[in-house]
Design a protein that fits this description.
Length: 257
């Protein structure tokens, strides 16, 4: 599976190889709206519809796009005794993140003799500094080695707390499967399969991956996803260090990796 090919084509190839289908025929050729992406065609003549979609965090994708245009990533503030590392978020306004706006925050940190803060957890340690950080969309600041006054700004991450749940493993993956399976257009594209299996293939955005880390380091769900009657098989896949990791669920066999 190569990065140069479309996600749709990579998804179809993976589904074909796992299911044993002979080929994946393109259905959505762009000629009209509302068509599913592929049919998986088997040696016995069966054709199973397959629709490819994606799960992402739109706010994080937009913030990272803004960060990619951000220049400079290194800011210099005069009068400081330390170098600082600032951690941006989806709320960061990179257009206004320069030495003029950053100086009050890092100056206040040094005046308070704080080597590091992480908001909102450290609000009680720095209640007057918290509004400065919030205004900038910065959720953490750490003093670091380097020339005094040098400010390094890291790219944004999703600032919500996501964690595996031992009592409900894979719940974030289940949530996104059920959300996308219930979408009207996905259901319509996979309807009318005349009793054949139907596949909803979800690419997990590897750049917005945090909520769905259970794909890599969590356990398989202990329940089936709640699927509409139009969908019998769901896939959740992502690319990690050049490899594709996926979970697949079908009504007959349950979960597999």
């Amino acid at each position: 599976m190569t990065a140069g090919r479309s996600r749709e084509s990579n998804a179809a190839d993976l589904a074909r190889s796992v299911t044993g289908a002979l080929r994946a025929d393109i259905v959505d050729d762009g000629s009209q709206p509302g068509l599913r992406d592929f049919d998986l065609v088997y040696a016995d003549g069966r054709a199973e519809p397959l629709e490819v979609t994606s799960a992402t965090l739109p706010e994080l994708r937009a913030a990272r796009a803004a960060f990619d245009q951000y220049d400079p990533m290194l800011i210099q503030v005069t009068g400081l005794t330390r170098a600082w590392h600032l951690f941006s978020t989806t709320a960061t306004n990179f257009k206004n993140l320069d030495e003029v706006f950053v100086a009050p925050l890092v100056t206040a940190l040094e005046a308070a003799s704080l080597d590091q803060v992480h908001f909102p957890m450290d609000f009680h340690r720095a209640p007057t500094i918290y509004p400065l950080a919030t205004q900038l969309g910065i959720d953490a600041a750490f003093a670091m080695t380097g020339p005094a006054g040098r400010i390094l700004v890291s790219g944004p991450d999703d600032d919500r707390m996501w964690s595996s749940d031992q009592t409900n493993p894979g719940r974030h993956v289940l949530d996104v499967i059920e959300q996308l399976a219930s979408k009207k257009d996905n259901r319509q594209k996979l309807s009318g399969s005349s009793g054949a299996a139907s596949h909803l293939f979800i690419w997990i955005d590897e750049e917005n991956f945090l909520p769905w880390r259970d794909l890599v380091d969590g356990s398989l769900p202990n329940r089936a996803p709640r699927l509409p009657p139009e969908i019998s098989t769901t896939w959740a896949a992502t690319r990690v260090v050049g490899s594709v990791i996926y979970w697949v669920f079908n009504i007959a066999d349950g979960w597999s990796v």
